Amino acid sequence: MVENATGTGDMERASQASRTARMLNIIGIVVGVIFLIIVIVIVVVGRNTK
Questions:
Q1: Rounded to whole angstroms, how far apart are CA atoms 41 and 30?
Q2: For residues 17 and 15, what is the distance between their CA atoms, to the nearest angstrom?
Q3: pLDDT, position 12
């Protein structure tokens, strides 16, 4: 999307698409880290209950 907008000279749309992509990447990383922490806690708690 950014490349198409940049190629046509629409820098505002390219900038917006770039900001959206950056935000989605950050959200994905945060969700992934939270999921990883939850899995680690479940594994640790599961080992301690046996």
A1: 17
A2: 5
A3: 85
